[in-house]
Design brief:
heterodimer, A: 372 residues, alpha+beta, Butyryl-Coa Dehydrogenase, subunit A, domain 1, Butyryl-CoA Dehydrogenase, subunit A, domain 3, four-stranded mixed sheet, 11 helices, 10 strands, 51% helix, globular, B: 401 residues, Butyryl-CoA Dehydrogenase, subunit A, domain 2, four-stranded antiparallel sheet, 12 strands
């Protein structure tokens, strides 16, 4: 029974923190808001060089064969600096390729992902705001030489920079998953402007996009299980990023409460502020336990791995919402300004809350799990 | 990070479960003597005072083994040991601060429940501000004489002995003038009156001391060391039976699932109602996080780390969770949740209080946890000051002292 990180895991975290504190400063994050890509290739390459993109991939594909715990550590650190870019999307898609992909698909994409020369994303939502795989309406029609995909995918994160998209579609055999490469004919990616300028969403239209016979990921009609797996990992990963954001907001609030004076005293000496900070710490510690329990459960293939992922996403979403919001309250007016960095976290928390299955969806999954 | 139990822990759990399954009495022991007999059976099997050092009759068991036993007891519905305050607080206090003579005189009888103990701390005018307590202990040469009133004394009605905080010096700052004593409850100067709680039962009491006698040899530690001793005492009260607590929450949740499968709304079970499902999901998510947090604490304890002030996070977390839990249960069950005597089998639940009862009893008990052993407000002060390092509040009594 050991809930502590190993020395290697601690080293991974301290290396990540040092790199990100130096290279992904708030100024860097803000400079990318007006950038059409919203992320930087040199940073991406550097993340690959640090081994983050192949962290959980097999060594044969250029990875380090580590797991979700290590991935969550990196994600927590990325969340701590509100790092923009498709890291979570890419590692989740890579996980899908690793577990459902053919040798050819793996050889085509995994080394490129590990090396930082390819990005990927997953298109989970169709027209309706329904996270269940069975709600997929996008159609897959068989043609003489492959499959033709038609439909609309909404709220796809970082689709505009992805080299490959994982697209679920419904065909004669049922629900299947397809790899669609950027630039395919009939593929239209339209960015949607949203609250968090560091998080990029797109509407992806597939207007009879033709993919070859080698583009199907996994067995025909068997995508539901793969999609559950992707959503599960995405949920744990999002929890990791939210945890990083929440802990940073707590740290900023405590530091501020120690120095900001009103009525001749630091505001942290007032119970109204101190108790708020104590509640924030409680949420952060519980979020930590939930995130890393779930990450460990994925790696250990524990019998409650599915349950734990949903618990983590549901709990950490609400905990982070509360902590990032309370941080603004502790700071007062300065916390509501554009120049101060708190809104970066507040907005990222909201964006992640609405990604990879929201808390309502994951709570429903939990109820289904416990009433089976 | 590896959250699996070792094969040794699994064997220990298995052996504990087998023992409990064959030994747990079929009916809740009704009399004090029956409960004492069960306690003695647990003690003889090595399941009482497990964390105490071997030299004092304990087992020197690891925190995880203690948690496993408590957990298996919760799972099998085993009645609790009878002397909880003696074992969790008084015994460890004597072990750390007591004289050799005190250790020889008291410790074994605490473990065997031959002598039952209560804790005489809170007073009508000294609750969260415990250090302002007014009960006086005067030195009369060969003994002390105690006058004052204590309140919220759990188990006071059956206790043979009490761990007492009383003021021995009024000339110094309030934290420095308090001493810690062991006081015999069966004497003319001690009167115990039951206090009924909002559940209707009387688990605690008021204790009036009028010229009560305490022997000189029953001073614990030095004169004036009482506050310091109480601080370590309070820390023993937090964090202990973490896994067992979650197991009881889960057992109650299974009862709740039976209820929502039985009760109907609109020709379908409540379980199929989306608003009910949302609440069930909210409870279970929260409950699982309590479990993960408990494992994290246990892992730290296993490494010999002392949770220290961080134990306040655990106490705050579970006590506030219990309130959220039972508020949602009440919303789901409506008037069914308010039944005080179990007519239907799904109405009887584990109230996590040691008191058997219904959802209504459990709901009422959920208000206790955020008050006893340091209220949520006190826990937040501790977290703010000692974990987060926020500045102390300017307080009138601190300015004086």
């Amino acid at each position: 029974m050991d809930f502590a990180f190993s020395p290697d895991q601690q080293l991974l975290r301290s290396t990540a923190r040092a790199f990100l504190d130096e290279h992904v400063t708030p100024a860097v994050v803000r400079a990318l808001w007006d950038d059409p890509r919203g992320e930087r290739d040199d940073l991406w390459k550097e993340m690959a060089r640090l081994g983050w993109l192949g962290l959980a991939l097999p060594e044969a594909h250029g990875g380090s064969a580590l797991g979700m715990v290590e991935t969550a550590i990196v994600l927590e650190e990325l969340g701590r600096v509100v790092c923009p870019g498709p890291y979570l999307e890419t590692v989740v898609a890579a996980h899908g390729l690793q577990h459902a992909g053919s040798p050819a698909q793996q050889a085509r994409w995994l080394p490129a992902i590990a090396a930082g020369s390819a990005r990927a994303t997953v298109a989970l939502l169709d027209a309706e705001l329904d996270w269940r795989p069975e709600a997929t309406e996008t159609r897959a029609e068989r043609t003489l030489d492959g499959v033709r995909l038609t439909g609309v995918k909404q709220w796809v994160t970082w689709a505009h920079v992805a080299d490959v998209l994982l697209v679920p579609a419904r065909g004669p055999e049922g629900l299947s998953l397809f790899l669609v490469e950027a630039g395919a004919e009939g593929l239209d990616v339209s960015p949607v402007s949203a609250m968090d300028p560091g998080m990029r969403w797109s509407t992806v239209r597939l207007d009879g996009v033709r993919v070859g016979p080698g583009a199907r990921l996994g067995e025909a009609g068997a995508a539901a299980g793969v999609l559950d797996d992707l959503l599960r990992r995405g949920a744990v990963g999002a929890a990791g990023m939210m945890l990083g954001a929440a802990r940073r907001c707590l740290d900023m609030s405590v530091a501020y409460a120690k120095v900001r004076e009103q009525f001749g005293q630091p505001i942290g000496s007032f119970q109204a502020i101190r108790h708020r900070c104590a509640e924030m710490l409680l949420e952060v510690e519980n979020a930590h336990a939930a995130t890393y329990y779930a990450a460990w459960a994925q790696d250990a293939d524990a019998e409650d791995a599915t349950l734990a992922a949903s618990v983590a996403k549901a709990y950490v979403s609400e905990a982070t919402r509360k902590v990032c919001g309370e941080a603004i309250q502790v700071h007062g007016g300065i916390g509501f300004t554009w120049e101060f960095d708190l809104h970066l976290y507040f907005k990222r928390a909201k964006a992640l809350e609405a990604s990879w299955g929201d808390a309502d969806y994951h709570r429903e999954l939990v109820v289904r799990h416990v009433t089976r | 990070m590896d959250l699996r139990y070792s094969s040794e822990d699994l064997r220990f759990r298995e052996a504990t479960r087998r023992w409990l399954e064959t030994q747990v009495p079929r009916e809740e022991p009704a009399t004090l003597e029956a409960r004492r007999a069960w306690h003695r059976q647990l003690y003889d099997a090595g399941y009482v005072g497990m964390g105490w050092p071997v030299a004092y009759g304990g087992r020197g068991a690891t925190p995880l083994q203690q948690a496993i036993v408590a957990d298996e007891m919760a799972r099998t519905g085993a009645p609790a040991p009878i002397n909880p305050l003696g074992i969790a607080i008084v015994g460890p206090t004597i072990i750390v601060h007591g004289t050799e003579a005190q250790k020889r005189r008291y410790l074994r009888k605490i473990l065997t429940a031959e002598e039952l103990w209560c804790q005489l701390y809170s007073e009508p005018n000294a609750g969260s501000d415990l250090a302002s307590l007014g009960t006086r202990a005067e030195d009369r040469g060969d003994h002390f004489v105690v006058n004052g009133q204590k309140i919220w004394t759990s188990g006071g009605l059956v206790a043979d002995w009490g761990l007492l905080l009383a003021r021995t010096d009024t000339a110094v700052a309030k934290h420095k003038g308090i001493s810690c004593f062991l006081i015999a409850m069966h004497q003319p100067g001690v009167e115990v009156r039951p206090l009924r709680q909002i559940t209707g039962s009387a688990h605690f009491s008021e204790v009036f001391m009028t010229d009560a006698r305490v022997e000189k040899t029953d001073l614990v530690g030095r004169l004036g060391q009482g506050w310091e001793i109480a601080q370590t005492t309070l820390s023993y009260e937090r964090g202990g039976s973490s896994l067992a607590r979650v197991t009881r929450y889960a057992a109650a949740f299974r009862q709740l699932l039976r209820a929502v499968r039985t009760l109907q709304r609109g020709d379908r079970p409540l379980l199929e109602d989306p608003t009910v499902r949302a609440k069930l999901g909210r409870i279970y998510v929260d409950l699982e996080v309590q479990r993960y947090a408990a494992l994290r604490i246990l892992s730290a304890l296993e490494k010999g780390e002392s949770p220290g002030p961080a134990a306040s996070i655990t106490k705050l977390s579970y006590s506030e969770f219990e309130k959220r839990y039972h508020e949602l249960v009440q919303e789901i069950l409506g008037p069914w949740g308010q039944v005080m005597s179990a007519a239907d089998d799904f109405a009887e639940v584990d109230t996590s209080s040691g008191e058997p009862g219904t959802w209504a009893t459990a709901f009422l008990w959920s208000r206790a946890g955020t008050i006893y052993a340091g209220s949520s407000e006190i826990q937040k002060n501790i977290i703010g000051e000692r974990v987060l390092g926020l500045p102390k509040e300017a307080r009138a009594d601190r300015m004086r002292s």
